[in-house]
Amino acid sequence: MLPAHTDPDDAWRVLRAELRRRIGAGTFDIWLAGLELAGWDGRTIVLAGRPETELWVSRRYGRLLGQAAEDVLGPGTRLRFASGERALEPSAGPVIDAERVHDPTTGFNPRYRFEQFIIGESNRLAHAGALAVAENPGQAYNPLFIYAPPGLGKTHLLHAIGHYVQRFGAGGCVRYTTAEAFTNHFVTALSSRSLDAFKHAYRTADVLLIDDVQFLAAKARTEEEFFHTFNALYENGRQLVLTCDRLPRALTGLEQRLRERFEAGLVTDIAPPDHATRVAILRKRAALDGIELADPAVLDLIADRVRDNIRLLEGALIRVVAFHSLTHRAIDLPLTTEVLDAMYPATASPGRASAPSGAATIDAIQTAVAGRFGITVDQLTSQSRRATVSWPRQLAMSLVRELTGESLPAIGRAFGGRNHATVHNALQRVSHRLATDAEAVEIVRQLRAELSGAHDDRRS
Asked: Does residue 253 sit in the same domain as residue 308?
């Protein structure tokens, strides 16, 4: 987040750069390049352009402008056009925002393809289901219902399916919409007496992708129309993919018959990503945007601070890059810490106990594990890959993670300068071995008791 006292011209320059990146240079040059900064008081940006341009941009890119302003300049930032002095809220405009900017040649966000989706344990089944229906629409899972809280990749998978079908679907018609846009389209069709055209638009699709179906609740006529659209497509072997923020059975505002149809195919969720997946997402984003990092550890720091929402995770990286653009400082740990402290102060990671005062230390754990396996601490932290050393090292890393709450980068540094991916792999190996190896479980129990006893002795 940029400080409120940032020079207005600098703030506008950074925001313009972010807008160009989000919608593409061509679209930006046509519609947004002519806008000029009329004022900024640290909270509200006033833009000026030709009246007709302002109106069109407000309707078409209102949400995009609002979201980009908040990502770059901080939550609560507002936009106004000088002519009407009408505020642009992040929710203004049609269903199109910073995460749903469509490529005019395909209708889908060019960043949202399968090859750009980072797969982790939290989203593996959802990704597999999406790829299966993209490869065989109407044959694999129909409908496919993906549920997750906002910001975890549901829309990415919908657009990925759309891209795939358009590229490999032999001319199949794929249509993406949201429940909100479907409702608006239906209401317009009723008022303009064009219901037949509305039905044709949706019921002739080979693949229909519907985002945020929870917003159909409490809209009786729209729900009725959607029910018949669903049936028409399903009975003709057309593919339906739906996303929602909850399970079908939790959609109490929808009729039972719709909830039952939602559950007739594959229902899968997306959970918040683990640390390794969050870092991989940031690394992919940095590579796509050509971001030069003075220290790759900044990605680990961001991943440690922002855990539950991919959109916020990428937004944190955007703010760091924006601050770098304004101050010309390298993107390193001091800069990243300074930017993140304002919005994401350091806390203990979920599932990771904060180490109490006097608890087992990294040195104590390394000494105990080395002694248990008859090796030295130097061997434990060396680069040796011998089995007699690698297993004790992996076990020691796991105990450090469990008993001290240290981050993956910190653990890696304590074990010979290894990176977080190596530590993450070690933790997984220990977890898998403990699931099948009774002797390993007993060794861990003894080490925990030994380290706990040493801790109690120090406190006595």
From this structure: no
Tens-digit pLDDT profile for residues 180-229: 889 988 988 888 888 888 898 899 899 999 999 988 887 888 999 999 99
> Domain of 423: which CATH number?
1.10.1750.10
Q: Is the pTM here over 0.85, yes or no?
A: no
Q: Which residues contact 184 (CB under 8 A, 6 or more apart)?
A: none
Alpha carbon separation from 327 to 14, 101, 301, 407 (Å, rounded): 11, 29, 20, 29
Is the alpha carbon torsion for 56, 57, 60, 66 positive or negative? negative
How far apart are the C-alpha atoms of 146 and 151, rounded to whole Å? Answer: 13
- The pLDDT assigned to 422 comes to 84
pLDDT at 117: 92
Q: What residues make up the domain containing 322? A: 279-341
3-state secondary structure of 242: strand
Q: Could you tell me if 46 and 124 are in contact, meaning their C-beta atoms sit under 8 angstroms apart?
A: no
Q: How far apart are CA 314 and CA 22, in angstroms?
A: 12
